[in-house]
Design goal:
Layout: H1 5-43, H2 48-69
Helix pairs in contact: 1-2
Length: 74
Amino acid sequence: MPEDPSNKRDFWVQLGRYSQIAFLFPAATVAGWLIGLGLDHWLHTDWLYLLGLIFGIIAGFVELIRLVTSADFK
């Protein structure tokens, strides 16, 4: 019995969507941390990296929730 090509494509589409979720949160966290670290270096402070880290985590959660609740994801 031959496989349906649309089922194979659906598998790869789902795999891409779930891998997007897996990379989204860590990428947002690291990006926020790096921005905060850059601001620390530029402004000669030593606490802005924490603020950047917190904003990165919040941005990751917001985007994660938006992605999961979107109609395209289901």
